Amino acid sequence: MLSVGRQLYLAHLERYGARVEPLGVVIETRNFSGRVIFEPPVLLPEEQFLELDLLRRRTHGRLRQRR
After folding, report:
1. Neighbouring C-alpha atoms within 13 Å toward the C-beta of 14
2. Full-prediction pTM beyond 0.90?
3. Is residue 27 one of the residues assigned to a domain?
4. In total, how many domains does the chain have?
5. Comparing C-alpha atoms, which of 16, 15, 12, 58 is closest to residue 36?
6. Is residue 23 in some structural domain?
């Protein structure tokens, strides 16, 4: 889900630049389609909101497996 959100956000940046900063993205969980949003969303039950801060974060390294 997070990778889909990042792809949507990066595609938006490539197309429109950073003129107006979105709040995040809304992703439909059934088919993983989504949209960039600029106002607080009203979500349907099958939608998930990902904030912009979450999309900008990067994980460093791999998660360690427990033994």
Report:
1. 6
2. no
3. yes
4. 1
5. 12
6. yes
